[in-house]
Amino acid sequence: MVTAFVDMVGLLMVIPLLPFVATKLGGGGFVVGLLVSAFSLAQLLSAPLWGRFSDRYGRRPALLVGLGASAIAYVVFAYAGSLTVLLLSRIVQGAGGGTVGVLQAYVADTLEPRERAKGLGWISAATSAGVMIGPALGTASLAVGREISWLGDRAPGLAAAALCLLNMAFAWSYLRESRVKQADAPGAAPPIRPRAAVLRVLTHPGDAAPRLIWIYAVGMGAFMSFTALQALFLADRFGVTEETIALAFVWNGGIAVVTRAWLLGKMLDRFGEARLSRFGLGLMFAGLALFPFTWRFHPGWTLPHLFGWAIEPRHLLLALVIALLPLGTAFTFPAVTGMLSQVIDPRERGVMMGVQQSFGGMARVIFPVLGGWTYQHLGTGYPFWTGAALILCTLFFSLGIHPTPRPTPAAASAAE
């Protein structure tokens, strides 16, 4: 949790400043989009390779190397004098950030099957907290750097690199190796390779592990499309501005942190991963389906002003509907990943969770683009209704999945 939190803080120290750095170097909107996509592309391509590496050599070495790559990327970002160098920093940073699946495999290694979804929720809560804190630290370090002549605008990148090195030192000292070498059963097939794992998901979508990966990817894509278009919809329909849009994201982030850190464990104990994941998908479906209708809510009553703001009934409805999305994702994604860890061979845990991150990353790239096109050409509600329809499909796709822990090869051999 600490390693994931500090890593996310460092990442978010530089991400909000990226468009301003690109603009100073002569880039425009297309270049900024390319820089953002370069990170996601490098991350999704490297994730299965990191998973395979961690299955063979251990989770700890993979995480340490990934943190080292991120530290180098931050230094390159700090001294970038051209758009090409800035793009290189994003590629290296994305490749280093492909260890999300390794972190998930670490959780699966160290916790009992029934506790894994809780642990994954705690990791998500830690990264969500990093998302909330990182931008403020980045802005503060920029202000400090501009007071020191030799540091200047390089301060956020160098501060993020220093934080990453401290994180490496912490991980080196306190993060113990979690992977236990599994003894192969006589005649057992060798662990799957990344390419074969991707093909398995594409060619056998009805199997338990591929089904869970598809559910994760489609749910992630629908949520990221909502996130990308949320500000645009609120500006068009509610008159939200640059000064007030942060309220929506703080509302989302706060609900996500509280739900994953406190409520998720209680819900898992009561309902289990399979039922809770379907409940989460139902919340996501309701949130996406209702979101386009919130601006039309005009009952015949009003609310008093709050802190000088004119609060309308539709604002309360908007807050409730938006809350369904972080609640749904907080219940769905940890539960789905926890189930995935139970239905795959422990020897393949790293590579399969890396493949899950690759499919999720691909959805994060594709869905917002398609959502933006439908928003512009079909209407403001269509991308959200499309996402709701896809979530409904995954809800039916999840029926019948009730995973039980898969025995290790050694245990299976002993049983025989």
**What is the CATH topology assignment of the largest domain?**
Growth Hormone, Chain: A
User: What is the typical, i.e. mean, pLDDT?
Assistant: 84
The top level CATH class name of the largest domain? Mainly Alpha
Order of helices and strands: HHHHHHHHHHHHHHH
Largest sheet: none
Counting DSSP H or I runs of 4 or more residues, the number of helices is: 15
CATH H level, superfamily name of the largest domain: MFS general substrate transporter like domains
Question: Terminal Cα separation, in Å?
Answer: 39 Å
- Our count of domains comes out at 2
Quantity of strands, as a count: 0
Helix content: over 70%
Quote the beta fraction: under 5%
Structural class: mainly alpha
Q: Rg, please?
A: 22 Å
Instruction: Write the CATH architecture name of the largest domain.
Output: Up-down Bundle
Instruction: Please tell me what the overall shape is.
Output: globular
Unreliable residue stretches:
405-416
